[in-house]
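Collaborator request, handled under Task 6.
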Amino acid sequence: MPSLSSHVLDTTLGKPAEAMKLTLTCPDGSGFNLVTNADGRVSQWPDINLVTGTYQLRFHTGDYLQAHHGSQFYPFADVHFEMEEQHGHYHIPLLISPYGFSTYRGS
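Structure tokens returned to the collaborator:
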């Protein structure tokens, strides 16, 4: 079964993005709300059976950026990704700043 992890880093402050809300949407349309910990990671993933298919992680960046930088341009960042391997690990990092974001497949 695939596994999933995520990490959010605030590149302007040079530190993890704590208490950012995320929403995981599964291929069957079910959704789960998550929150990053002090290390910018999601430590409590829902007890779900991850299967191959297309997923979405919505990072609710707006509230976080407003609270830490006084402004925000992107209210959220959506990352759609395909789980193809039955036993692969998928790490979805997000690098954010008030006026930009980037992501990649991590390890």
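The cover message to the collaborator said: "The first strand starts at residue 3 and ends at 10. The chain has a mean pLDDT of 94. Please let us know whether this matches your experimental observations."
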